[in-house]
């Protein structure tokens, strides 16, 4: 490698490792080629360092003949680009688009932010934060604002609000169209919950709207009739106090019907609950439900209202237990949405957001993990021995930079290597494992990735607790007079960023597992390692949170955001995308 | 059985089974309302002709609103929808359960499932499934139902 060129690149402000990679990849074709290479896999502004006032002009990514397949646009950015991002034809295994703000940042970890106006620019799409920040902090000009690691383009709606809104809409439509609540819900669903459009059409031609939505005549039913048959469920005789049936004449007593309907509603059914007869397709009318279980009728209506989320392609329930919020994206094309509880969801597969891995990779990966669960079980996630003094160490935090309490040895929890001089533990070493049989090699390779995937998940769990603590201490602080909200807000934001990094790191190991070896993977692993190290640093700082390290925390938080962004845009654009 | 209302139903089912058992179905054990063992016999003219199998029924307090847990015990028939641990992949036992179904109608469904089979094979995922289902109830499995016709 040409040391002279390397020196020049470093002088221009490029990170030495990036520069080395660029020179390797361009086979020393010259300085321009190397620079062009660097710009071609990353947004120009991201790689030029602060200190560089160089005259290097960013090479724009050349237009490509191939366009983005599904017409997904990047949104949520003021400098919204309407042009399509090019995709390298060779990169077949992945191109995942997420909406993301443009970042003007530096990769140089030594950069100081004091006079850095670009870090403020970063905030320009984050209205919420800007307001809070600028209202309250005239005397905090030296402070560092914290960026969101990942953008949020969805709205979060509280569960109670949704039900309330939807119920009102159902009631309105039901009374105007003179239909049952179920029928009104079906009508609304037919019009994607656009009540005005529905009514417009309804006034034009009521019959047609009703038929098109597939609303049938209400079935005849009885809820108290003396019958010669017994209840088909419990065998009780049926009289005028308890004999219930629909037009299909599946006779049962009121109590059995009530138990049956309660279970159905409990299970989340609302529209189209069928008769209890075996394979009987007869739908139970709303009024029948109201008569049989009047005390549960409101619950039934709530279930109807819930379809407002379930049948809306732009909405998802937050999967966090007991959260109950709904997430509404601007369009169906959105790939992720973020809940106020911290959960980030993949809009396509409804699992935890798994960028940079795509949904198909996740499916294969999860299948593999299930199949190999026995083999992977030996990985004991929370206890290991100190590699130096062998004393058992229990992990109780997210940070993987461990210090043995007994012998003070510092080591990496993931690879058990010495922390001093530890700089790369994300690359699976083929050579080291080359003397083993193929199956053994394959298994070890899988375990290598699985172990890291798992460790980041474990860390994320600890760190999610950290975030909850942060939110609690914010409430605490608000009640005390000696601190202002703004003084502690950053802890929540930092833990938030930390969790984003952790989650992404977890899934980088899925992405990496399926990424073929080659220059692209080298670049990916470089960025992954970079993010990993910054994340551990942030995690360590946040665990030892105190008043004096707040500036460090903020700096490292922003640095982690930046690294995260680099990694994801690298993946998004293809590392060697031309 | 803790629910007296539904104990009555089981009592009635038991009586019906005793008095007029369908062809090929026999009560082996029905001392309690928690667990019954019902013997079924492969119908003549089918590949299971003359073979005897035992079905174990476990009822919880919500039966018949909740389906019973039904598995083969002892000699498990070799069938593409029956795992060697006795678990049965049949939708009416899980998702398509209806409280209108009875022990007798379940036995008949299982007999008909046996009768329509033309080749004695285990499910393709048998060893994989039974390894994961150790100590579990088939009701805890999220079944992807095979073609119900076979
Ligand atoms: Zn009854
Ligand atoms: Zn019916
Ligand atoms: Zn949530
Ligand atoms: Zn997905
Ligand atoms: Zn030690
Ligand atoms: Zn390591």
UniProtKB/TrEMBL annotation, chain A:
Single GO MF descriptor: zinc ion binding
Source organism, top-level taxon: Eukaryota
Membrane-traversing stretches: none
Record-linked InterPro entries: Ariadne, ARIH1-like_UBL, E3_UB_ligase_RBR, IBR_dom, TRIAD_supradom, UBA, UBA-like_sf, UBA2_scUBP14-like
Pfam families: Ariadne (PF19422), IBR (PF01485), IBR_1 (PF22191), UBA (PF00627), UBA_ARI1 (PF21235)
Reactions it catalyzes: [E2 ubiquitin-conjugating enzyme]-S-ubiquitinyl-L-cysteine + [acceptor protein]-L-lysine = [E2 ubiquitin-conjugating enzyme]-L-cysteine + [acceptor protein]-N(6)-ubiquitinyl-L-lysine
Domain RING-type: 227-429
GO biological process: protein ubiquitination
Biased composition (Low complexity): 52-70
UBA domain location: 1-41
Compositionally biased spans, kind Polar residues: 78-91
Enzyme Commission no: 2.3.2.31
PANTHER family reported in the protein's UniProt record: RBR FAMILY RING FINGER AND IBR DOMAIN-CONTAINING
Identification of the protein by name: RBR-type E3 ubiquitin transferase
Lineage: Eukaryota, Amoebozoa, Evosea, Eumycetozoa, Dictyostelia
Automatic annotation (TrEMBL), chain B:
Membrane spanning stretches: none
Keywords: Transferase, Ubl conjugation pathway
Keyword Metal-binding attached: no
Ranges for domain UBC core: 5-150
GO biological process, one term: protein ubiquitination
Catalytic activity: S-ubiquitinyl-[E1 ubiquitin-activating enzyme]-L-cysteine + [acceptor protein]-N-terminal-amino acid = [E1 ubiquitin-activating enzyme]-L-cysteine + N-terminal-ubiquitinyl-[acceptor protein]; S-ubiquitinyl-[E1 ubiquitin-activating enzyme]-L-cysteine + [E2 ubiquitin-conjugating enzyme]-L-cysteine = [E1 ubiquitin-activating enzyme]-L-cysteine + S-ubiquitinyl-[E2 ubiquitin-conjugating enzyme]-L-cysteine
Name of this protein: N-terminal E2 ubiquitin-conjugating enzyme
